[in-house]
From TrEMBL:
SMART domains named among the record's database cross-references: NIL
Pfam family, one: NIL
Protein name as annotated: ABC transporter
Start and end residues of each NIL domain: 8-82
Length: 88
């Protein structure tokens, strides 16, 4: 049985297509799903012509994190999950 209230940390990499560069995707994760987001790496310039990338650590309970991942998926963003302790 999974403890749904236990604090969980999930590391993901998200591709942000150009059409989403002005959208508040990260702040929506915090405000809508009450997850703590730590941006560990990012490539997204103010004048970026292409896609951007975020490496994120999401912290919250299992339900909050799963809901946040569904939100990102519903936006059509590519998401990679860290597979082991060595990274991507």
């Amino acid at each position: 049985m999974v403890n749904e209230n236990r604090l969980t940390l999930k590391r993901i990499r998200v591709r942000i297509p150009k059409q989403f560069h002005q959208e508040p995707i990260i702040s929506q994760l915090v405000s809508l799903y009450q997850v703590t987001v730590n941006i560990t790496a990012a490539i997204l310039g103010a004048n970026a012509n292409g896609d951007g990338w975020f490496d994120l650590e999401l912290s919250g309970n299992e339900i909050q994190i799963q809901d946040a991942l569904v939100y990102l998926n519903d936006l059509g963003l590519e998401i990679w999950r860290e597979t082991d302790a060595d990274g991507w």
